[in-house]
Design brief:
With 477 residues, the chain is an alpha/beta fold. It is built from 22 helices and 10 strands. A hairpin with an 8-residue loop joins β4 and β5. α6 runs parallel beside α7, α12 crosses α13 and α19 packs across α21. It binds adenosine-5'-diphosphate and magnesium ion (MG).
Length: 477
């Protein structure tokens, strides 16, 4: 058994014990480097994945490994950056575990590339879909359940009862996500189908182009073999009659042959003012569903989902503050989260409610902020010196300041000590030397080590993130 097949068998056993989304996030691109003298050396693409797997799944991985090879007694981990690089296939593609045989996977890859028509005509190119969009990572709540369910039904049976499927909703609510997810899903379920994705704008410009260059027959040919046609933002059809006419023909031809058509728009068919009546009524023939702004719980679930995708750990209170304050669109929700993450990466601190406020202020949304009094907080008692901060941390962690600055190396004192050093450094900007002096004359490298260690732990330890944030709130930050 090669190392990779060994790892594959271990993952197969591990798969049922871990939530699918987590499994896909953390085990993607991993592999085994060696299996010697009872020690299994696992390679991972990132430090995050290493820490996360070692902390959360270590025992489960070991158990699964022992089922495959009883000699394995111990796990070791190594971060191998190139595993995370695009196009690198040294690591295991865990998605294969959910689809079945490798053969099928290879077929799907081909399906995403150039496709040859079934009856030997001109090759038809299939748009490569953004793999980021699928139906599994589309978070479902009361206000988007129907569009999601209809998309699922289309994937199961293209050209079935939901044809055409028309999804409408305001900007940034997930129309393109669903449409691309349908594309990805259909290709996965039916690797031989030809799926075409296009925005209405592009369709219009291609029609105009084809007419100008007298290439209409060739243009029409493109659609002859399409099994599933996905057309985004049909409100952009505009008044161009020739392109509407062309679309009308394409639509009818596909529809008559029971081919699936999915359309999206920012409004219902009846409100597409510039559109030919015949098209409007065609659009309404199948299923028309509306996407609405998700409610608070769903917004929170979306934020959690995105954190997992971005491999970020953020205090649940901070996430719920974002979910409360961003009610415009999912795109904006995601945007705020990304900015908050970027801000905290720059400052090398964990995201707090205050950092969210900062982002919202930059977006000129300060006036609408709920649950945070921008003016009042400024005048609060803010802990400004190291001594006060030490008292605060000691109180919070139920130890005395003397214990914290002393020599005791028990976990109960070490942790508050490290947190305190970290906060003095990052929030008050003291030098390592000075902090060392305040902590019983410790060497500056010891302090630096404590700060770095805490910063690392903050990337993977949600409890620590909560504690640090709670202390920061008490500091008035
Ligand atoms: P639209 O096409 O309606 O303007 P998009 O499909 O581009 O919106 O969605 C904007 C962003 O919001 C995308 O990153 C998408 O992944 C995300 N998004 C929207 N709805 C959801 C959802 N229910 N779950 C997860 N992500 C979502
Ligand atoms: Mg869109």
């Amino acid at each position: 058994m090669t190392e990779k097949t060994l790892w594959f068998s271990i993952l197969k056993r591990l798969k049922p014990t871990i939530k699918k989304a987590h499994f896909l996030t953390w085990f993607q691109g991993t592999t085994v480097l060696s299996n010697k003298e009872g020690k299994l050396l696992i390679a991972l693409p990132t430090v995050y994945a290493r820490d996360w797997i070692a902390n959360k799944y270590g025992v489960m991985v070991l158990q699964a490994a022992q089922e495959v090879d009883a000699e394995i007694m111990e796990l070791d981990y190594e971060v191998v950056g190139r595993l995370g690089e695009k196009g690198n296939n040294e690591g295991v593609d865990v998605k294969e575990l959910f689809i079945g045989g490798e053969k099928k996977v290879r077929k799907i890859r081909n399906a995403n590339e150039v496709r040859v028509t079934k009856d030997g005509g001109e090759p038809v190119e299939t748009k490569i879909f953004n793999a980021r969009y699928n139906l599994k990572n589309f978070v479902v709540g009361n206000r988007n359940r129907l569009p999601h369910a209809a998309s699922n039904a289309v994937v199961k049976m293209p050209g079935g009862i939901y044809n055409p499927l028309y999804v409408y909703g305001a900007v940034g609510l997930g129309k393109t996500h669903l449409l691309q997810a349908i594309g990805n899903g259909v290709l996965r379920e039916f690797p031989d189908m030809v799926v075409k994705y296009m925005t209405a704008e592009k369709f219009v410009s291609e029609v105009v182009n084809a007419i100008g260059k007298r290439r209409m027959p060739k243009f029409k040919d493109q659609y002859r073999n399409v099994d599933c046609f996905l057309i985004d933002d049909v409100q952009f059809f505009g008044r161009k009659n020739s392109s509407q006419q062309e679309f009308f023909h394409t639509f009818n031809e596909l529809y008559d042959r029971n081919k699936q058509i999915v359309l999206t728009s920012d409004r219902p068919p009846s409100e597409l003012d510039d559109l030919d009546e015949r098209l409007k009524s065609r659009f309404s023939m199948g299923m028309v569903v509306e996407l609405l702004m998700p409610d608070f719980e769903t917004r929170l679930a979306i934020l959690n989902q995105k954190c997992m995708e971005f491999q970020a750990i953020i205090d649940p209170e901070v996430l719920s503050f974002i979910a409360t304050n961003v009610q415009t669109s999912v795109r904006e929700l995601e945007g705020v989260l990304r900015q908050v993450m970027a801000l905290s990466q720059l400052a090398e601190t964990v995201p707090t409610i205050r950092s969210v406020v900062e982002v919202l202020q930059r977006m000129n949304k300060a006036k609408e902020i709920i649950g945070f009094d921008v003016e009042a907080k400024r005048n609060d008692h803010i802990v400004k010196n190291a001594k006060d901060l030490m008292t605060l941390v000691a109180d919070y962690c139920h130890v005395s300041v003397d214990q914290m600055t002393g020599k005791d190396r028990h976990k109960e004192v070490m942790l508050p000590r490290q947190i305190c050093m970290y906060l003095i450094k990052n929030e008050l900007g003291e030098s390592y030397e000075k902090i060392g002096m305040g902590f019983g004359g410790r060497n500056h490298t010891t302090v630096m080590h404590a700060c770095n260690k805490t910063a690392q732990k903050l990337k993977i330890d949600i409890r620590l993130v909560r504690d640090v944030n709670a202390i920061k709130r008490e500091m008035g930050l």
